[in-house]
Amino acid sequence: MEEQVLWDSSCDPESSSVFERDRHIFYLEMMYQLLPSPYQAQEINRLTLAYFIISGLDILRALDRIDKNAVINWVLSLQAHPQSEGTLEKGQFYGFHGSRSSQFHSNDTRSAIPNGSHLASTYCALSILKTVGYDLSLIDSDLLLKSMKNLQRPDGCFMPIHTGGETDLRFVFCAAAICSILKNWSGMDREKAKEYIIKCQSYDGGFGLIPGSESHGGATYCAVASLQLMGFLEEDLLSKNAPCHVINVPLLLDWSLQKQAQDGGFQGRANKPADTCYAFWVGGVLKILGADKFINEKALREFLLTCQSEYGGFSKFPRLLPDLYHSYYGFCAFSLLEEPGLNSLCVQLGITHKKLGD
Ligand SMILES: [Zn+2]
């Protein structure tokens, strides 16, 4: 009997050599309607998950798939408000809660909704509102920003929440992005934040999350994007041959380029496997510096396509199931690679460019 070809590898959806835009839209729409149970543990970060979905659909030019008014009303319902009009109470922060459950009353007191508003949730809330075209002048920016200033520490770094928590570059970035989106810098001392960021640059050129810690792709993005948003780093610096006296740019460039691994993907730290999200974190740093022309784009694209799921979305490593976080940064990476049919990214804010008046 003649041997039958049961499986033709050229038909293997996992080995697709194109960016599967329609499948990605389908994947995000599915997540918009109902989050699968593995996301249960991340309930507290629901706003962040919504940011990945909504901003992801925006990159894919498919924002028409969502009910924008419903999204706006839901996001606004997560904002923390002072008990009495216009007062700042005990250093509290009036940003956004990460989810409905963090607004629940505790069992013993029925008096007040606890204020669990968080810098990261606030960054995601404002990003979503900007993405769906909400008029941000309707937000009480003064109260939000004045109360955000309470979160900045004497060393320039930020706490994520008024009750404390770890302080590191992630929250400096959130604060800078919030001020940039609201076009009002009264919420932070930029000079102090700059001093803190400078202390986080390591001997090898990358940045650690706190001074003295190991260089890391995510921390390096937070440092460079914050400096750019705060006006300390000119955009496209290398192409313009502009001098920079704030940080060591040649060393940073060196470190960033060395993070492109043998398989074409970017690693977050030396000697770690390449991972989808660092194509954005480290690729984004190179883009902000105007050095993205030094990326081996063909190899990066090939690596990313091995992480593209047959169900839509991207996984962390090749041939795993997709997750929202890596899917979003996969879409961002393809936008940086100028994939046709995608909206372009404002790298330092992590959302798409909006035309004037949007
Ligand atoms: Zn990752």
Automatic annotation (TrEMBL):
Its cofactor is Zn(2+); Mg(2+). Gene3D superfamilies: 1.50.10.20. Its EC number is 2.5.1.59. Keywords: Magnesium, Metal-binding, Prenyltransferase, Repeat, Transferase, Zinc. Transmembrane segments: none annotated. The keyword Ion transport does not apply. It is an enzyme of class 2 (transferase). GO terms for molecular function: CAAX-protein geranylgeranyltransferase activity; metal ion binding. The keyword Transferase applies. Pfam families: Prenyltrans. One of its GO terms (cellular component) is CAAX-protein geranylgeranyltransferase complex. Residues 19-345 form the Prenyltransferase alpha-alpha toroid domain. It comes from the Eukaryota. Belongs to the protein prenyltransferase subunit beta family. PANTHER family: GERANYLGERANYL TRANSFERASE TYPE BETA SUBUNIT, GERANYLGERANYL TRANSFERASE TYPE-1 SUBUNIT BETA. This is Geranylgeranyl transferase type-1 subunit beta. It comes from Buddleja alternifolia. The lineage of its organism: Eukaryota, Viridiplantae, Streptophyta, Embryophyta, Tracheophyta.
